[in-house]
Amino acid sequence: MKMKTSLSQDSILLILILNVFKVVSNQPLHLSPYLEQGNIETARRDSLVNDPTGVIPTSYSGLFTVDEVLKNHLWFWFIPAINSDPKAPLVIWLTSGPGCSTMLNMFYGNGPLKLTKNSNGNDSYERRVNSWAQTFSMLYIDNIVYTGYSYSDSGNKGIKTTKDYYTQDLYSFVQQFYKMFSEMKEKDLYVGGVGSAFKYAESLAYKIHEDLQAKRDNILLKGIYAGSPLLDGRTQLRHIYEPFYSLGFISYKQMINYTQEDEMLNNLNEKKHYLNLESVIYKMSNLNLENINTFTLSPDTEINNVMSTDAIKSLLHVGNNTFELCNLEIYTQSADDVYQPFQTTELVTLLENYKVLLFTAVFDGIISSPGLEAVLMDMPWSMQSAYNDSVRKVWREDNVVKGFYTYVGNLCRVVIHNAGMHITNDQLNVTVQMMEDFWHYGCISNTPQ
Predict the structure, then answer these.
(1) Would you say residue 176 lies in a domain?
(2) What pTM was estimated for this model as a whole?
């Protein structure tokens, strides 16, 4: 009887222990406490993404606490260069939208994974043959809470949509990342993303630049990059109808009328310039503004499905957190910051000191070349006159046109052919070559003319 009682107690104890471990495994992996205690190897070990199928390449995932008062936790997925090149740069990819997770680009852009269906017909993923992660160490950061798996213990109070606040969070993240992966501090750093991510990239790069100038840090910042960059929303949206007219989608009269109507909307409410964009979406509702050459939309539902499975949550150490691919609340709160009048000081400083790559796509219905050029040609930097007088060069391979480019000073300006808003998805191999050229030469190289 004693043995029976003893076994029963042991069984109860075992069940309790297993339940404790189950609770722990359902919690997101917070890495900041490890770093504070100096347990770097434990942090790296616990954050390792161990995919038993081998589909996901060697990578790391977890959360850094970037605001100890609000308890803001930013989630990341770090993929060291698959080709194991010891000189491979670190490329940071930031949230766009605003309010959309970097996982949009992981599965529908430059990441090493792409969507597929499994044998049961459910949404799944497989390895890409090529990706930016083949050449570069890719660090995807969902840098605003409630995008992706990032979150705050303070609820919506943790949402930061003004430059000083989100820059501080990002900078805290970068410092912790380098503490955990100290070997990456010896690599060249490039910061960027697409669309509104330019705002975050520019601010973070400028903050790093200030610390470098003050000799407070030794990060090897080499450049910033942005696809379909939103520099000055008011100016760029003023030119948004020009591509539709030049491609024959609207008449000259429509272009003039639409532009005047949008200007009236903006003048009625100076702060909310994004009303212009909503007006464009309404007027051009018969087109897919992501890519006006097709009606194929980004697979938002499929990405949400994959990222919400128990299997992927376990691999990425996010516990029971809810995944948000695109958060409308974040978009609404961020709009004033994203569309505020463009302050040129930071970008001009970066242009004078680092490489800058800005690329757009011919069939992007939102961020067009005419709008971006209007901003760049009015930007007071040392090479402004040279840029304004420059000519485009054709980027081609044999008889295939990949795009067009201009290279003046530190600025590499590229227009990608046969692509829409999701440039890295539409022309993945072209953008891989573009980034490799940007890394090695500052812009597109060896183009036959």
Answers:
(1) yes
(2) 0.90
